[in-house]
Amino acid sequence: MNAPSTTLASPTRNPTDWKGAAMQKRIAARYAAERRFRLLGMGAVLLSAGFLAFLLFTMIGNGARGFTRTEIALQIDFQTAPILIDPATVNAQSLAGANLQAITAQAADKALGAGGDALISPNAWLTVRDAILDNPKVLSQKITLSLPASTGIDLAAKGDASETDEAAYARLQQSGVVSTGFNSAFLSASDATDPTQVGIWGAFKGSLLTMLVTLLLSFPIGVATALYLEEYAPKAWWTDIIEVSINNLAAVPSIIFGLLGLAIFLNLLDFPRSAALVGGMTLALMTMPVIVIAGRNAIKAVPPSIRDAALGVGASPVQVVFHHVLPLALPGILTGTIIGMARALGETAPLLMIGMRAFIATPPGGITDPATVLPVQIFLWSDEVSKGFIEKTSAAIIVLLAFLLAMNGLAIYLRNKFEKRW
Amino acid sequence: MLTEEQQALKPNNPKMTARDVNVFYGAKQAINKVSIDVDMDNVTAFIGPSGCGKSTFLRTLNRMNDTVASARVEGEITLDGENIYAPSMDVVQLRARVGMVFQKPNPFPKSIYENIAYGPRIHGLASAKADMDVIVEKSLRRAGLWEEVKDRLNESGTALSGGQQQRLCIGRAIAVEPEVILMDEPCSALDPIATAKIEELIHELRGRYAIVIVTHNMQQAARVSQRTAFFHLGTLVEYGVTSDIFTNPKADRTRDYITGRYG
Fold first, then answer.
1. Interchain CB contacts (distance < 8 Å): A and B
2. Among all residues of chain B, which has the CA nearest to that of A320?
3. Interval A332-345: pLDDT, tens
4. Global pTM exceeds 0.80
5. What ipTM was predicted for this assembly?
6. Contact call for B173 and A420, based on CB within 8 A
7. Cα distance between residue A82 and residue A397, in whole Å
8. Of A122, A179, B13, B176, which is most buried by a Cβ count within 10 Å?
């Protein structure tokens, strides 16, 4: 460099040449470095935003179709196929005796031509039954119902099916009986073998129950552990070991927790298989270290001056913790809890190990009933052969993401509510 | 009625006594054989250069050093003749009797009312809301803050200015009716006007409470205290009537310090 140099021997101080060429070059280089760094950061943000947008668009693009279904208007004449039940005593049980399945199939054959039965969903008779239960008078009338179409027709309507289905769909369209409706069954039904009949409610409820068990176990234990380690535990070799163990536990692959759950909860303790109880306990093991670590950091961040102040007016250690430290640490603890819970909500592997991947067609009634959860349901559907499951998988992902968003929204609300400045 | 001067020259009426107190942090000795009587009727100032142990010693007087895991106290410290390091001593009660005001104002992030009411509440000094209102008003009046905050008792204590916060902390200490108030450089974070108000307040509180104030400001010690203890390197070099210490110090180290040779 040709910058002015000062030697130890020189008697006078050399003034720095702030305007010189070398200095200008250095300034330009510094500005360039700043610019580069900012562009790099912006590029990273744009890239991640792009990935996120791609994910959301494909999910919503695919998944939105999972919330709609193709319906076929079908006329059923109960006068030619009478069901001999007194309209006053009609209920699900008395209707079980009537062969609604056959009546629906016959009506389909009659209205849509030979093989018409195959064009409507095998479970279309359930819609017929609901219509009768809704209004028993129809038993002596001719009614027209919008029945769910078969998987083939549904796919053809959404533009992705075999040639025979496409042709059948074209014929139906010509006769003007097809329409598109909101698939309310998707939000109220559970798993099924036929993609037109699957629903997410069972898995959603399973997730809800599992999360409840996880929260009820991991939050109190995690917070109590964090409090003990920060406020009470003496600094000794065994507390160091506990600390290292908890940090390691947070990094253990989740499938290991699944194996642990299988070995301890199912084999040793004989808890019910596939149940939300065991799933929640397994996920609680996984979530607890996250809560402990976040909780300890939040407790550490409470200024010591607040503890001094409370001790100074004669508060006991327990009073200091519960009146001052915990309320001030709560926003941080909640943030950690939500991160842990969000991870637990999206967890699949450990739940596969404890049998929550079973085919479960009824929503769980309680935490000991067989259940599955949203991510496992997504995993199961993505594995299905039938093409109709593709959109259902995406739709289930949308439900899972909405669940996650709602949880995070709640966390942010709670954090802001409890946040205090000092 | 005694004049201020006569009062200051009266022999000590000891409220707290310390005899041969040693304090260790791990292997390091922070306080070496300190013996001192804290007078009930006068303000005692601890002065000395940074790191001389005056704050450490202050914190042994209400066992705040207990919170430091490595701290160890030897010797005897009594409050009204009762050893405060005896196993039978209840630390929580001790700290209610020996209140403390800290270097940095540290109000709770709660309302002004709650800041004052917290201590009396946990000690069960008032059960009815009306009783508590009386305690809050009385404490804030004694802390010289009532007129400034009476219309906004529900606002956060942390929204007050630094000087007001420190007076709030003094009010909080007063609210539990302590017998001794320890002040650890209470004005070091405050501007001169706020400092003057606190000093005035200390004057008014004298006699009602035994007051010990740690300060690195010698003028402040001369202004507010009637007894001064000079600490250096963990030892008590000189202790006596403030006017004597400042005009006629016996030890060379004291003279060097108050004339500004080091500090």
1. 71
2. B122
3. 898 888 888 888 88
4. no
5. 0.87
6. no
7. 44
8. B176
